[in-house]
Amino acid sequence: MIEWFSEQFTNPVTSGLVLGLRFLSYFFYSALVAVSAGLRARLTAFSVVLSVLSVLLTMLVIHPDGFPDMFSYVDILIHLTFPVLAGYAVYSNPSNRRWVSFSLLLLSTFYFFSLLIVLYGEGP
Questions:
Q1: Where are the domains positioned within the chain?
Q2: How far apart are CA 25 and CA 29, in angstroms?
Q3: What is the pTM of this model?
């Protein structure tokens, strides 16, 4: 199965689509935090900053002239921080819709985490 993922990441269209969906899930996390904690909450601002930072960091790590591969660990850490932030925000102000949204985003986190390991060629 890893071989199939590796072959798909040689296709730039597939890589761009997967990365775009991953970044979209980050902004969905930020929207969930904003709905749960409030639009002007520090937690919301922190979530948005992490989203933008992850996008920039990913682009700089996968670019041939960008950051060294050791920065991929920071991106993986950011990736695993989103469920914690959103889970805390939803736990603080729960509703059934928020829990369902969090659960779906959590599934996407695990899916994209497996693809991150293949993209960067290393895991934690």
A1: 2-120
A2: 6
A3: 0.82
